[in-house]
Amino acid sequence: MAIFAEYIWIDGVKPTAGLRSKTRVIYESDVPKSTDIEDVTQIDMSWFPVWGADGSSTEQAAGDDSDIVLKPVSAVRDPFRPGHYLVMTEVFVGATNEPHDSNTRADVRAVLDAGAAKADALFGFEQEYTFVHPAGRPLGFPERGFPAAQGPYYCGVGANKIVGRPVYEQFMARCLEAGVHISGVNWEVMPGQAEVQVGPLGPLMGGDHIWLARWILERTGEDYDVGVSFEAKPAKGDWNGAGMHTNFSTAAMREEGGIAAIEEACVAIGKKVDEHLAVYGHGYQDRLTGHHETARYDQFKYGVSDRTASIRIPRHVAENGCGYLEDRRPNANADPYQIAARLLRTVCGID
Hints:
This protein is of the alpha+beta class. It has helices spanning about 105-115, 165-180, 205-220, 250-255, 260-270, 275, 285, 315-320, 335-350; strands at about 1-10, 20-25, 50-55, 65-75, 85-95, 120-130, 180-185, 195-200, 225-230, 245-250, 300-305, 310-315, 325. A hairpin with a 7-residue loop joins strand 4 and strand 5 (about 85-95).
């Protein structure tokens, strides 16, 4: 008996990193004798050995010293190969066994070790994405000209409003089958654009599940010859961009009277606008224009139920006096690990 383990890692491509993966075959003789590798409900990380890859092909090493190390950190069921696994890994430098510069998950671990762990933070990521033709044109956009103006597409239904539903539905089902913690999905404001919500989860697992969801989404698109774009502004002009609004809370925010901690966090974040934007994804200037439900990138404000603000405090949070805040600035192409590390540094005073 053997299992396939799809080792997934984040490459070093700039300005926006992407996903890579390859398959490790693990035989029953290589796992502890007490383990039943046919029981897909039990995922034991000790099954998955450290592996390697060619970093010279992923912008993570030079050709004369090309080996990088892949260290498994979490796993879910593989919805494409029943009985097998998707394995999230961190990248290390082979010669030194230190985290590679592209290993932003290691930054989250460092911030947690520096004291942020006691905040008991939770993250919910609202990952928007755009279906595209293989040549890059958004699904629903004609070869020449534009579709009807946006408005009816958001949470819409009907062939004249929605394109790409087979991919959307299959992606959602595969996330559930895998065990990726999705909490909702919906169609977005621009044709061919949708969103999946992941979380709430801790900072490490939240990042893992966003990257795993992205991998499952792109892999599902292969079956339909449909591409996926995470660009911040996939269609220029009077069209919404694509973001990854980040819902964030600490234990203090979630407790009775936590609205005070939420407002304190908003004030602290407002003092570090540039530091946050630096890790909120490439092309934020094109998306954060002050139009299309965004605040301008060079202005900062927060408010209750305000979708034109940098940070929105949901109305029910204000009414309950506790809960979470929503940072609306991160792009769809942002790295969730970097977002988590930056929010924790700012709110927990770790800088």
